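Workshop exercise sheet. Pairs work together: one partner reads the sequence aloud, the other fills in the structure field after running the prediction. Swap roles for the next sheet.
Pair: D.N. / O.F.
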Amino acid sequence: MTRWSAIMLCLGLAAMLQLLRIGAHSALLYKYDNVQVEQTAPFEYWMVPDGQPKFHTTVCRDYPEPGFTTGMVLEHVTFVDRGSCWSLDPNLHAGYFIRRNKNGEPILLSRR
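Structure field:
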């Protein structure tokens, strides 16, 4: 193998690895505002967004359990679709904001 061939092979491999890396990070993001939470089990929730149908989700275990409780309202939540679960890992541009009262306590609503 000539030196030129070896260089081209390395450049081709580097380009393929970059494409694989980009593909691994191009996951779907789901964003919702004013979402009421109904916990069904650890890491499992019904989400009830304002004006939209409620949906069930399993939160990935790639980040600590969020500690949502039934009746809690999320001002905003962004999930990253990981296939079998939805991630809340902020390193993946996901996360949430809990609606709180003036004392910093979560506001709990009755079921919708």
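Discussion prompt: The longest helix spans residues 3-24. What would you look at next?
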